[in-house]
């Protein structure tokens, strides 16, 4: 990456909120920002809620973010613009507003700054000389954020083809101890943030059985919200493993994102819904097959070199149940060939 002439000492990045999936998608943005301005103090402000960068993903952003402000007082409604300046009126050399609402951008423009970039009003509120060229806005959230960096720095910022998250060797060894070695392991993650995004559990069961018949070990990845599914799944697929519920792994550690990333690193492929686990698996470098129905992969698909998405639409439907088991099984076979 070329060196930027503009070298801010302080940078404010304003976001809405950060959940696991979009937090992982934002990691390449943070790395690129730090590559451009290694000496800058970076403040990350989430105005619509919490940020995983202040919680479960804090170790992943050590050295990338210097300060996280959750529930930051940045107005997002027109009626709030006349109240006091946000963030106690603090000044920043560079402000990057990632949100499209113009009210937040106008509020941030009241802070002392040298340069500001924002996607609001097609970039018209950005500082002069930092406004985007005319053209279609990219669909992917990551590319949208990298474009803001380009506008601020005045140099190209390429899109990476993957975003790996390192895990401690101790955790890598602990996860290796709860899965067999020398046999293909296929991860299956049936959960998601909403049931409308879930492929039917019967389909996951049928896929798990196919993997067992092919000499592979189905590894079921259940999060805390899906624990009640474990008994039924064990009965339906006796060959399946549930390592994220193994006391040898989680006792004393808990079920953190880094545990899932480390475990995924031992798997040969992972099949999941549109959920955070897809981004965690991709962060390990493992090939991921992500299933989409009512949601679109264009904005939030995991960043991975090897993997694919399957949509209900390409299968002739619109709901998750419209994705045939055979289509998913074929994609796994292709990845493992």
Automatic annotation (TrEMBL):
Gene3D superfamilies in alphabetical order: Glycogen Phosphorylase B (3.40.50.2000)
GO BP annotations, alphabetical order: lipopolysaccharide core region biosynthetic process
GO molecular function: ADP-heptose-lipopolysaccharide heptosyltransferase activity
CDD domains linked to this entry: GT9_LPS_heptosyltransferase
Swiss-Prot/TrEMBL keywords: Glycosyltransferase, Transferase
Family matches, as InterPro entries: Glyco_trans_9, LPS_LOS_Heptosyltrfase
GO cellular component, one term: cytosol
Name of the protein in its database record: ADP-heptose:LPS heptosyltransferase
Organism the protein comes from: Novispirillum itersonii (Aquaspirillum itersonii)
């Amino acid at each position: 990456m070329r060196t930027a002439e503009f070298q801010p000492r302080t940078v404010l990045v304003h976001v809405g909120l950060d959940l696991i999936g979009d937090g992982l998608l934002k990691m390449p943005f943070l790395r690129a920002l730090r590559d451009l301005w290694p000496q800058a103090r970076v403040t990350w402000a989430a105005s619509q809620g919490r940020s995983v960068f202040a919680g479960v993903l804090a170790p992943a952003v050590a050295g990338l973010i210097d300060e996280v402000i959750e529930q930051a007082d940045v107005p997002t409604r027109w009626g709030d613009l006349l109240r006091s300046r946000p963030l106690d009126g603090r000044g920043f050399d560079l402000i990057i507003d990632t949100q499209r609402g113009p009210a937040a951008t106008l509020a941030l423009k009241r802070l002392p700054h040298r340069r500001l970039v924002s996607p609001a009003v097609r970039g018209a509120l950005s500082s002069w000389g930092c406004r985007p060229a005319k053209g279609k806005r990219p669909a992917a959230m990551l590319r949208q954020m990298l474009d803001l960096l380009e506008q601020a720095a005045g140099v190209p910022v390429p899109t990476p083809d993957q975003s790996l998250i390192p895990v401690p060797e101790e955790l890598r060894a602990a996860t290796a101890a709860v899965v067999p070695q020398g046999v293909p392991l296929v991860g299956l993650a049936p959960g998601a943030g909403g049931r409308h995004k879930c492929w039917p559990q019967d389909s996951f069961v049928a896929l798990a059985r196919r993997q067992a018949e092919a000499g592979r070990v189905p590894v079921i990845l259940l999060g805390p919200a899906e624990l009640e599914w474990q008994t039924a799944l064990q009965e339906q697929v006796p060959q399946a493993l549930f390592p994220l519920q193994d006391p040898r792994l989680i006792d004393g550690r808990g079920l953190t994102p880094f545990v899932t990333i480390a475990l995924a690193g031992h798997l040969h492929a992972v099949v999941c819904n549109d959920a955070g686990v897809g981004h965690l698996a991709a962060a390990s470098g493992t090939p991921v097959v992500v299933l989409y129905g009512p949601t679109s992969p264009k904005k939030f698909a995991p960043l991975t070199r090897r993997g694919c998405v399957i949509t209900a639409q390409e299968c002739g439907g619109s709901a998750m149940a419209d994705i045939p088991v055979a289509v998913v099984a074929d994609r796994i076979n292709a990845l493992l060939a």
